[in-house]
Design a protein that fits this description.
The complex is a heterodimer.
Chain A lengths: L1 E5 L4 H5 L7 E5 L6 H8 L8 E4 L2 E3 L10 E5 L6
Parallel strand pairs in A: 1-5
Antiparallel strand pairs in A: 1-2, 3-4, 3-5
Chain B lengths: L6 E6 L4 E6 L2 H7 L2 H12 L13 E5 L13 E6 L6 E6 L3 H8 L1 E7 L6 E6 L2 E6 L8 H12 L4 E4 L2 H4 L7 E3 L3 E3 L4 H7 L2 E7 L9 H16 L4 H7 L4 H7 L21 H7 L1 E5 L9 E6 L7 E4 L3 H11 L4 H14 L3 H16 L18 H12 L4 H5 L2 H9 L9 E2 L2 E2 L9 H9 L12 H7 L7 H18 L4 H6 L3 H12 L5 H23 L11 H5 L14 H15 L9 H6 L3 H10 L24
Parallel strand pairs in B: 1-6, 7-12
Antiparallel strand pairs in B: 1-2, 3-4, 3-6, 4-5, 7-8, 9-10, 9-12, 10-11, 13-14, 14-15, 16-17
Helix pairs in contact in B: 1-2, 2-19, 2-22, 7-21, 11-12, 11-13, 12-14, 17-19, 19-22, 19-24, 22-26
Classes of the chains: A alpha+beta, B alpha+beta.
Chain lengths: 79, 638
């Protein structure tokens, strides 16, 4: 299946976008949690606070489905 | 003077004299406002033996250079004084709308001295500046008073208030504005209360003149357009800071039961997801902001009246929720409202109650000390009762009114071991036993332990949590970068979350003022402020500086008992090594005293002269001061 991962900031440097400046297309083999997919593509899951999918928060245990557009939200502190 | 209101107010509360002078352009250019103004004025004017709650302390209200501009987003205002919690430099800022309103009325800086004979409030309506009687407001809660004053003066006034906590000198009292924005830290509300200033009400209609309005407008427009499509914008808008609970917990840094643990088993009940699902009424924004990360919420706790509150934000959830072990976001929101209205910082307030709860758990505080009540983890009635004892300084509440360090000194029995504070100010909402850079950040921070001056949790993750290698240099870099936003008086989150660069902020400053500032120059100014505050602290408290950079016992000697960080501990030896590294990287001597070389390099040779007089000028260091202090690192997540 194909999913799309998106992020800005320095997470983007690890994500290596190829669709537009924020987005990378990923081909995923089998059914697996997002955490495993992130580690496979070189994005440290420890620096992703949560995933944002279809306007909703999902944890990294979420199992993506074909066509998902998944924003990776970094932790941030202190405005 | 483009970009500034043009006028400084000097107010002598003993005589009621209000003096208006033109804001000094040289002061503005060199220190850029807010934290910079506060540092310079406190250093120059406050006698070193002045009581923080006495007449010789100054209470300073100072927006910064970007306050009132839309780019990118100048919503903030700084408050400063010598802190009653730390006995050192204090600056604390808030968003909302007060800062822009003050500049639009024409004012860049207000300096209060002495003590008013009776409660008063400062009334500003453009050119009209008056001290008005506030006896009829004295005793009111912060939120209640803001609403009352809006009714009395008009809804277009922007109002900052203190509550009974500030009136009674509780050292972690805050200043509240906009029904939920706080200058929370350092006890600025207690100093405002000691001056008998109950509120500041401002209406301004003059606007602000920009030197190059077309360029400033274009910069802002481009940033807005760019950030609207930034992928991290929508999640940030929806969840604000509260979403961070789950991540922090999973990383083993979520303060739990007064930092006894770092993983809270009931975190799902107090997470941001729960806040949005069950409490959220609407999003809320500060002046000029298009993110709206504030969350206006309703707390429904069985047996209690419903309460409305802005938040809770992450720090409040961590230090009231996790640290006092509340299982429901409604209880955290209720407690948030309670502390907002009495006028207490939810961070230090939450931590102080958590400290007292641990004292109760250990039998050090008993029902006899609590007027027959208990003080159980996660019990909202117990929490409410002990807060009332603190606000009114009854019994054990009088000891707790001094914060965890002051209370531990009064209670004794080894309780200082579990007072999670540095220099008298409580830790922010991150345990440090697996986070050496954050531990160093807290213990060397110029205002006491506070994450906003250096948040290094993600730097620790990126560089390795089990090593201290290279951490000191990164902490120094963060201690120069993050406080710049306090000095400029704009929100840090645009930089941290959606890629608005510090260079763009400097461009905005130059378009606004006509200056030729560079980011490199701003870093040097930030380093100058840091060093000046360090010298001031040593001059006030004696030296050497190293004796104040102390980590709490628990954080040096107790491995984390369970959870993801089980067994982790930075330890004393590593902490001392990091301090050595930190001082060397700053150009300070091994005792933590700044040297003449670094102070003269930064243009504050006068501080070297003063340190020399008190006998704590740093000894010259071998090889001289490093050419670059700090190591640039933008962690992958901020």
């Amino acid at each position: 299946m194909i999913i799309y991962l998106r992020s800005g900031g320095k997470l983007k440097d690890r994500l290596k976008p190829d669709v537009d400046q924020y987005t990378r297309r990923i081909e995923v083999e089998g059914d697996k949690p997002l955490r495993d997919i992130l580690n496979e593509v070189g994005v440290p899951d420890s620096l992703v606070a949560f995933a944002f999918i279809n306007g909703k928060l999902e944890r990294l245990e979420y199992r993506p489905v074909d066509g998902d557009v998944i924003t990776l939200q970094p932790p941030v502190s202190g405005g | 003077m483009d970009g500034f209101g043009g006028t400084t107010l000097r107010i002598d509360l003993a005589t009621g004299n209000i003096r208006k002078t033109a804001t000094d352009p040289a002061l503005a250019r060199e220190w850029m406002g807010a934290r910079g103004f506060v540092s310079k004025i406190l250093y120059d004017e406050v006698p070193r033996d002045a009581d923080p709650l006495g007449p010789d302390n100054r209470f300073i209200v100072a927006p910064g250079v970007l306050t009132g501009s839309f780019s990118p987003v100048g919503s903030k205002i700084g408050f400063g004084c010598i802190s009653p919690a730390t006995n050192g430099h204090a600056d604390s800022s808030m968003g909302g709308h007060l800062g822009p309103e003050l500049k639009y009325a024409g004012y860049d800086l207000i300096v209060f001295k002495n003590i008013a004979p009776e409660p008063q409030y400062l009334y500003i309506d453009d050119d009209t500046v008056e001290l008005r009687p506030a006896g009829h407001y004295w005793g009111m809660g912060s939120l209640d008073l803001e609403k009352r004053m809006k009714d009395d003066l008009g809804k277009d006034f922007q109002i900052a208030t203190i509550g009974p906590s500030g009136e009674n000198g509780i050292v972690f009292s805050c200043i509240t504005h906009d029904f939920g924005r706080q200058a929370g830290r350092c006890g600025v509300g207690a100093v405002m209360g000691s001056k008998k200033i109950k509120a500041i009400a401002v209406r301004g209609s003059k606007g602000l003149k920009a030197r190059d309005l077309p360029s400033l407008t274009k910069l802002t427009y481009d940033i807005i357009q760019r950030t609207k499509t930034h992928p991290n914008m929508a999640p940030w808008q929806k969840y604000g800071t509260a979403y961070f609970v789950g991540w922090s917990n999973e990383r083993g840094c979520f303060p739990t039961r007064n930092f006894q643990q770092t993983y809270f088993e009931d975190w799902k009940g107090i997470d941001g997801e729960k806040l949005v699902e069950e409490c959220l009424i609407s999003d809320k924004a500060c002046f000029g902001c298009w993110i709206n990360c504030g969350k206006y919420s309703k707390a429904k706790v069985p047996g209690k009246p419903d309460k409305y509150v802005e938040g809770p934000e992450y720090e409040t959830i961590a230090l009231i929720g996790g640290s006092c072990a509340f299982k429901s976001i409604h209880e955290v929101a209720y407690a948030n409202n309670l502390l907002d209205n009495v006028g207490m910082d939810t961070m230090s307030g939450g931590s102080t109650v958590a400290f007292a709860m641990e004292c109760y758990q250990r039998g050090i505080i008993t029902k006899d000390d609590l007027e027959g009540h208990e003080l159980r983890w996660g019990n909202i009635d117990d929490f409410e009762h002990v807060i009332d004892m603190i606000v009114h300084r009854r019994g054990i509440g009088d000891a707790l009114a001094h914060g965890t360090k002051g209370a531990a000194e009064k209670i004794g029995k080894g309780t200082i071991h579990f007072a999670s504070q540095a220099k008298g100010m409580e830790f922010s909402g991150y345990d440090t036993r697996w986070y050496p850079a954050q531990l160093l950040s807290y213990c060397t921070c110029d205002i006491g332990a506070h994450h906003s001056k250096s948040w290094a949790i993600t730097a620790d993750i990126e560089l390795g949590r089990d090593t201290i290698e290279g951490k000191a240099a990164v902490v120094i870099y963060l201690q120069h970068l993050r406080p710049l936003f306090d000095t400029w008086s704009c929100c840090r989150l645009f930089w941290g979350e959606i890629d608005v660069s510090p260079e763009e902020h400097v461009d905005a400053i130059n378009y606004l003022t006509g200056w030729d500032a560079t980011l490199e120059e701003c870093f040097k100014m930030s380093e100058k402020i840091w060093n000046q505050n360090r010298c001031h602290y040593i001059e006030r408290n004696g030296g050497p500086g190293r004796k104040f950079d102390i980590a709490p016992g628990r954080h040096l000697t107790e491995p984390v008992p369970d959870g993801p960080a089980e067994g982790k501990l930075v330890g004393s030896e590593n902490f001392e090594k990091m301090l050595d590294d930190y001082y060397a990287n700053r150009g300070w001597d091994v005792e933590g005293n700044p040297t003449r070389e670094i102070l003269e390099l930064l243009g504050i040779g006068y501080a070297a002269d003063n340190l020399e007089k008190v006998g704590f000028l740093g000894k010259p260091i071998e090889g001289g001061v490093p050419a670059v202090r700090g190591r640039k690192l933008k962690p992958m997540a901020m």
